Amino acid sequence: MTRIVIFAKAPVPGQVKTRLIPVLGREGAAALARQMLLDTCREAMAAEAGPVELCLSGSIDDVPEGIELTDQGEGALGERLTRAAERVIGRGGAAMFIGTDCPELDALRLRSACSELDRHDAVMYPTFDGGYALLGLKRYDPSIFSDIAWSTPTVAEATVGKIRALGWSLHIGGTLLDVDEPADLEQLQAGRNARATPFMQ
Fold first, then answer.
1. Cβ atoms 48, 97 nearer than 8 A
2. φ, ψ (nearest 5 deg) of residue 196
3. How far apart are CA 23 and CA 123, in angstroms?
4. Which domains does the chain show, CATH number per domain?
5. Collapsing DSSP states into helix, strand and coil, what is residue 174?
């Protein structure tokens, strides 16, 4: 069984979406982070791929029903991810880590990723900024999250290298858009407009 683990920060003004504060303000950036967190929870539940866990840094009052809330704990991001992977995979299941910054990571893509994880040791959906929106693992090794320069354009490439060095099979899905910078908001809206089908009589 695959457990979808949503890794997120509590949407506290001034602590989330900081690169969007110049255009949205502290409260606006936090409101967007909160909405994206709730949207991600909804899509993860709608995927019906397995249990959904919100692994949070900080606290939140209104966790959506049916989602287990856990604490990321202390340490750098790699340490926190390592603990979560060891915990989930150590129980005999697969772990699918996702963030809350990628509106394109919907229920359909999550189901597809879970299906690929049935056939591979690992699954990744990279993002245009060099990171990844999803990393699914059936096997655990502490090297996966160690010595990664987080929040840089090398995250996905370095992680792929670690997975291949272990000899694991890997499926890489389509590249998705993360929303972190003001330009990302514009690209997201442009993409939505391009996909929109006008009503024709």
1. no
2. -65, 135
3. 34
4. 2-193 (3.90.550.10)
5. coil
Identify the three-state secondary structure at position 16.
coil
3-state secondary structure 22-43: HHHHHHHHHHHHHHHHHHHHHH
Rounded to two decimals, the pTM is 0.90
Give the sign of the dihedral formed by CA 25, CA 30, CA 33, CA 39. negative
Q: Could you read off the pLDDT tens digit of each residue along the chain, which spans 201 residues?
A: 899 999 999 999 999 989 999 989 999 999 999 999 999 999 999 999 999 999 999 988 888 889 999 999 999 999 999 999 999 999 999 999 999 999 999 999 999 999 999 999 999 999 999 999 999 999 999 999 999 999 999 999 999 999 999 999 999 999 999 998 888 877 776 654 333 333 222
Amino acid at 133: A
Main-chain dihedrals φ then ψ at residue 62, nearest 5 degrees: -110, 75
Token digits for 201?
């009589």
